[in-house]
Amino acid sequence: MNAYVLLSLVDASEREILNEFLDMPEVEDAHILFGEWDLILKIKGENPDAIATFVMDKVRKRDGVELTSTLIVAK
């Protein structure tokens, strides 16, 4: 199952955080954005619970991440 996670950052380096997330096995792709959101991650998980756990435990707890929005892909 795939999902996209939009991130809004505060007092953080977009490139540094982008590279950290790209090193994680759950992250298939990631990009810096211009506009309301700063980063977008394409992530993979076995099920919605795995995606939720990744977002809550690894994304939201990362210093510099102020806000997230998770979009689960419908197949």
Secondary structure elements and their pairing?
Layout (H helix, E strand, L loop, with lengths): L1 E8 L4 H9 L4 E6 L6 E6 L3 H12 L5 E8 L3
Antiparallel strand pairs: 1-3, 1-4, 2-3
Unreliable segments (pLDDT under 50, ≥5 consecutive)? none
- Separation of termini? 9 Å
CATH C-level category: Alpha Beta
Question: Helicity level, as a percent range?
Answer: 25-40%
Radius of gyration: 11 Å
Label the structural class.
alpha+beta
Question: What's the number of extended β-strand segments?
Answer: 4
Structure characterization notes:
The protein is α+β, with helices and mostly antiparallel strands. It has a single domain (2-72), classed as Alpha-Beta Plaits (2-Layer Sandwich), CATH 3.30.70.920. Helices cover 28% and strands 37% of the residues. It has two helices and four strands. It has helices at residues 14-22, 48-59, and strands at 2-9, 27-32, 39-44, 65-72. Strands 2-3-1-4 form a four-stranded antiparallel β-sheet, covered by helices on one side. A hairpin with a 6-residue loop joins strand 2 and strand 3 (39-44). The longest helix is centred in the last third of the chain and has 12 residues, at 48-59. 21% of the residues are buried. The mean pLDDT is 97.
What's a concise summary of this model?
By secondary structure, this protein is α+β, with helices and mostly antiparallel strands. The chain is about 30% helix and about 35% strand. The protein has one domain: Alpha-Beta Plaits, CATH 3.30.70.920.
